[in-house]
């Protein structure tokens, strides 16, 4: 290959855009061939697809990525820069490495296990990290390849055919798309929509008329206020709302994440073609009723930019406009996506200019605009619609609410999830003469929980060489917790690892030995149990039980890699007066290894005194919180008696810099 092709370059091959990533292991004639073969054929250039391909290369195998669109990185590079993570300390493996690589883009240095995870970032920075990985591991990416056929031999896929005639073959295949198109074409069982609570013994699935992102003031739903015969305003369903827990085929709303800025060179909002202010009459009435905002979120991601998302009853979510998307053909999908973009562009124009709105709302909205250096090929708007949910596979293990709540039966974990059981609204309905949103669920989980290997592979009789880490087997509400970009990357790495083991053993993906798979995953940094110490460990979080404190501590999530929902710091004040004690309830007497966790930064104290009170007395250790963050750091092994006699005390005496308190763990030695 020419030295000029040492980075990714765009080529046009048979109507598809092709990205050459690096020079090792591939030659241009082979890449341009009618048939391309690799050990793993990945469908979907999402974050999951890229991570799966990287893992294959790290294990000495080849991989190729094909995608129906023209965008690489999925939502991670598509504006979702404020990463939802749940318990960020449960992110391991390549997913954690990705967020550490992001951190190094902002704070140059080596990427090590002690490098903090940066979970908020600008879209182009995420794109640079993926570009680095694709180049470093010589991974070819074919864009604009829409699947037109799947070749099978018995229960195995033998090849994929693109709409341009390109053919992709290999022993293993992976569906990393948000839509699940490959699994559907392969004949794998799947579903779309919400199960009734009765299907899996759940409590927050199906219809859910609740208070989240809900109208807080009464708003008339009819075109002519008070007149039902005049018809409903746009976007409101005339179907009576079903009782809570009723199943249906509805899915949660989509939108575009916006990268906004207040900079002078921002791209101002403009009206889309066919703009009609009547489309936003419901919002106008809500404002008339007294709602003053906010109308969208403005989470800072760096560079004076935001990741702006849906907020409230009427916002960037185009509620109910996506119901046909999961199973639609490409022409219909393009129409649905275009309608979403038109809706959101019109919404921002309406908020910024409509003379019926208070000047305060118009001025506040117009102060924002699109970042001029992001998504330059699409006018500042992300090319990736937020597909929050589409098809979901049905396999030998369906992840459900029970798993999210920590009472599932996962014996074959390949990663952890930890986010709230979350669903955006699915429809607008009329209840007692006023408009209501339906479908929003926000129910927390007690902590990180395992995701089953069986949930990312189909039933063997249906397909023996396909892995599905994105549209995995889960109920609607469990998927709402699992559906995070870090989790997709975690599961993709585990899936690719299983693919290699299946190739090497000559087995189906269903026959891969879970123990052997888990051994390799742990070697590669995956976290499979919580707490990470495994069986018998006792873990205390700063926000949990067994913690007492003195002085003033401030909660923060600024640096990723913390345990639980946040960590706390002393604000670099109150030295000697501020302390935090972690007192475990140990189940038995014996020798225990004590670990401490913090998030590192250059502004941290280098001389934090930590007192370990144990059966033989008190041992003081000094830790440097400028480094070794976001990991468990051993402070030694000590004898403890059963019960609450032992403790770990973090002090601020004599410290220079911020002191962090996050978590303490006791492992039986």
Give me a quick take on this structure.
The chain has 669 residues and is α+β, with helices and mostly antiparallel strands. Helices cover 20% and strands 24% of the residues. The strands form 12 sheets. Strands 1-2-6-5-4-10-25 form a 7-stranded mixed β-sheet.
Task: Walk me through the structure.
- The protein is of the alpha+beta class.
- It has four domains: 3-191 and 453-523, 3-Layer(bba) Sandwich (FAD/NAD(P)-binding domain), CATH 3.50.50.60; 197-212 and 228-250 and 393-443, no CATH class; 260-378, no CATH class; 538-668, Jelly Rolls (Sandwich).
- Helix content is 20%, strand content 24%.
- It is built from 13 helices and 37 strands.
- It has a seven-stranded mixed beta sheet. A five-stranded antiparallel beta sheet has the order 27-30-35-32-33, with no helix packed on it. It has a four-stranded mixed beta sheet with strand order 3-9-8-7.
- Helix 2 links the parallel strand 4 and strand 5 (63-67).
- Helix 3 packs across helix 12 (485-505) and helix 8 (330-353) packs across helix 9 (359-366).
- It starts with 8 loop residues before the first strand and ends with a strand.
- Residues 1-17 and 20-30 have low confidence and may be disordered.
């Amino acid at each position: 290959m020419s030295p000029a092709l040492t980075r990714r370059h765009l080529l046009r091959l048979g109507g598809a855009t092709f990205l050459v990533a690096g020079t090792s292991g591939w030659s241009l004639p082979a890449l341009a061939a009618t048939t391309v073969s690799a050990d793993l054929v990945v469908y979907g250039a999402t974050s999951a697809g890229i991570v799966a391909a990287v893992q294959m290369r790290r294990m000495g195998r080849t991989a190729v990525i094909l995608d129906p669109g023209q965008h690489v990185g999925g939502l991670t590079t598509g504006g979702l820069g404020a990463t939802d993570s749940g318990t960020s300390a449960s992110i391991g493996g390549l997913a954690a490495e990705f967020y550490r690589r992001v951190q190094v883009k902002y704070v140059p240095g080596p990427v090590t296990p002690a490098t903090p995870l940066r979970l908020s970032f600008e879209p182009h920075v995420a794109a640079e990290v993926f570009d680095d990985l694709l180049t470093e591991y010589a991974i070819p990416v074919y864009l604009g390849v829409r699947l037109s056929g799947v070749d099978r031999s018995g229960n195995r896929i033998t090849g994929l055919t693109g709409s341009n005639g390109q053919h992709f073959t290999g022993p293993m295949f992976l569906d990393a798309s948000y839509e699940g198109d490959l699994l559907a074409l392969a004949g794998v069982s799947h579903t779309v929509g919400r199960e009734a609570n009765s299907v899996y013994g759940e409590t927050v699935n199906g219809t859910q008329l609740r208070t989240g992102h809900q109208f807080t003031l009464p708003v008339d739903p009819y075109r002519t206020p008070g007149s039902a015969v005049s018809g409903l305003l746009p976007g409101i369903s005339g179907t009576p709302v079903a009782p809570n827990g009723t199943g249906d085929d509805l899915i949660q709303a989509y939108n575009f994440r916006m990268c906004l800025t207040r900079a002078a060179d921002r791209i101002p909002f403009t009206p889309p073609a066919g703009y009609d202010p009547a489309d936003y009459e419901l919002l106008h009435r809500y404002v008339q009723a007294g709602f003053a905002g906010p109308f969208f979120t403005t989470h800072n991601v760096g560079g004076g930019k935001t990741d702006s998302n849906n907020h409230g009853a009427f916002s960037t979510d185009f509620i109910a406009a996506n119901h046909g998307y999961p199973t639609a053909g490409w022409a219909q999908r393009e129409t649905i996506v275009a309608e979403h973009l038109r809706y959101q562009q019109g919404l921002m124009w309406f908020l910024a200019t409509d003379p019926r709105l208070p000047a305060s709302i118009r001025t506040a909205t117009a102060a924002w605009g699109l970042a001029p250096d992001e998504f330059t090929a699409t006018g500042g708007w992300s090319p990736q619609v937020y597909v929050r949910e589409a098809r979901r596979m049905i396999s030998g293990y369906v992840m459900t609410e029970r798993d999210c709540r920590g009472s599932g039966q996962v014996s074959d974990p390949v990663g952890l999830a930890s986010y709230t059981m979350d669903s955006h609204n699915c429809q607008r309905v009329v209840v007692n003469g006023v408009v209501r949103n339906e479908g929003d669920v926000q129910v927390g989980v007690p902590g990180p929980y395992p995701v089953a290997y069986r949930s990312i592979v189909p039933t063997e009789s249906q397909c023996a060489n396909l892995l599905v880490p994105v549209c995995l087997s889960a109920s609607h509400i469990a998927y709402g917790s699992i559906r995070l970009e870090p989790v997709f990357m975690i599961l993709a790495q585990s899936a690719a690892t299983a693919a290699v083991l299946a190739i090497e053993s000559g087995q189906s993906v269903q026959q891969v030995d879970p123990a052997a798979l888990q051994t390799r995953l742990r070697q590669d940094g995956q976290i499979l149990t919580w707490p990470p110490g495994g069986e018998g460990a006792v873990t205390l979080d700063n926000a949990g039980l067994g913690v007492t404190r003195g002085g003033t501590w401030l909660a923060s999530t600024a640096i990723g890699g913390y345990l639980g929902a946040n960590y706390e710091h002393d604000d670099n004040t109150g030295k000697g007066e501020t302390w935090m004690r972690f007192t475990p309830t140990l189940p038995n007497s014996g020798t225990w290894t004590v670990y401490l966790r913090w998030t590192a930064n250059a502004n941290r104290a280098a001389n934090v005194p930590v007192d370990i009170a144990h059966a033989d007395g008190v041992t003081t250790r000094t830790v440097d919180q400028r480094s070794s963050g976001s990991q468990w750091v051993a402070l030694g092994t000590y004898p403890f008696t059963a019960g609450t006699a032992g403790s770990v005390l973090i002090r601020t005496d004599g410290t220079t810099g911020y002191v962090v308190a996050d978590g303490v763990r006791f492992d039986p030695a």
